[in-house]
């Protein structure tokens, strides 16, 4: 017996685990000792190491002990290939999830740096095209009605897994800004790299009027008024939409007076003629 079998302690040491793991596996019928002596001592065969290795490998790819037990009881090559295909899909999904998290972290970092570098100046900027994922049209539905807006906001965040306000912007028409309807939003939006036929919108490449609003969102109309005055004074023709993006909000700034909201307003300026900040 000494040449072919190991005690529970010896086998646990061989497998680099604690003895209680083997006791638990035995209790649930997943992995039992080859021999249990009259004295109650448990002995594991050296050949059981391979089975134990399979269990640990299955755990490493996310299988539950319950599913591993079913697999061990029924395993054959066809079932193994089916399992591998399923786990490949799971791994692909996990890779995508991790890439999304990495992209989220990069965006938060970029937004925070931009907020920290921002000043009070208004200027023109040349920006590339951007693809946006839009909410349903909210114009004339949410004006001055916070409850309706928050319901739309939460549904949009939930359906697109937005975990932070920095990932959701507001679109409002220039016409509403000129009428001082600062809360009559047209859409919520999120930047996206994926085409979506039902809610896809391409923010055009071009010259945008750029400013950052510092402080409470309730006072953002003050910055809009300055931007509209700047456009009027400099004879800048404005386009259809303005875009609000939260560069610095609750996730990184405790004091609301330190919040920073970026505002972009479409213009009809020509890239070759406009005087703009190329940053």
Q: TL;DR of this structure?
A:
GO terms for molecular function: DNA binding; DNA-binding transcription factor activity. The protein has 279 residues and is α+β, with helices and mostly antiparallel strands.
Report the helical percentage.
40-55%
* Major β-sheet annotation: 8 strands, antiparallel
Radius of gyration: 30 Å
Strand content: 15-25%
Mean pLDDT across all residues, rounded?
A: 85
Keywords: Coiled coil, DNA-binding
Organism: Murimonas intestini
Pfam family, one: MerR_1
GO molecular function, one term: DNA-binding transcription factor activity
Structure explained in plain terms:
- This protein is an alpha+beta fold.
- It contains 8 helices and 11 strands.
- It has helices at 8-15, 19-27, 48-60, 65-74, 77-117, 146-159, 174-178, 220-233; strands at 5-7, 35-36, 42-45, 123-127, 130-134, 169-173, 187-191, 200-203, 206-214, 238-248, 260-267.
- The protein has an 8-stranded antiparallel beta sheet. It has a 3-stranded antiparallel beta sheet with strand order 1-3-2.
- A hairpin with a 5-residue loop joins strand 2 (35-36) and strand 3 (42-45).
- The longest helix has 41 residues, at 77-117.
- The model is unreliable at 272-279 (pLDDT under 50).
């Amino acid at each position: 017996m000494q040449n072919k079998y190991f005690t529970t302690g010896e086998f646990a040491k061989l497998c680099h685990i604690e003895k209680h793991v083997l006791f638990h596996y035995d209790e649930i019928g997943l992995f039992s000792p080859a021999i249990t002596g009259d004295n109650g001592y448990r002995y594991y065969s050296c050949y059981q190491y391979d089975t134990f290795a399979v269990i640990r490998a299955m755990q490493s790819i996310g299988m539950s002990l319950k599913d591993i037990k079913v697999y061990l009881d029924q395993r054959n090559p066809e079932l193994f290939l089916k399992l591998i295909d399923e786990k490949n899909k799971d791994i692909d999904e996990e890779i995508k999830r991790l890439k999304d998290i990495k992209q989220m972290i990069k965006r938060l970092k970029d937004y925070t740096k931009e907020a920290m570098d921002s000043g009070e100046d208004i200027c023109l900027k040349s920006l590339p095209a951007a693809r946006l994922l839009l909410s349903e049209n909210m114009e004339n539905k949410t004006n001055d009605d916070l409850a309706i807006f928050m319901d739309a906001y939460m549904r949009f965040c939930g359906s697109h897994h937005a975990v932070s306000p920095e990932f959701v912007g507001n679109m409002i028409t220039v016409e509403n800004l000129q009428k001082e309807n600062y809360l009559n939003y047209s859409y919520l939006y999120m930047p996206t790299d994926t085409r979506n036929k039902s809610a896809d919108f391409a923010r055009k490449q071009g010259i945008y009027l750029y400013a950052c609003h510092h402080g409470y969102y309730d006072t953002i109309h003050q910055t809009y008024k300055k931007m509209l005055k700047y456009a009027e004074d400099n004879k800048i023709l404005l386009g259809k939409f303005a875009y609000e993006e939260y560069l610095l909000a609750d996730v990184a700034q405790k004091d609301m007076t330190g919040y920073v909201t970026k505002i972009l307003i479409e213009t009809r300026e020509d890239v070759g003629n406009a005087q703009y900040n190329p940053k």
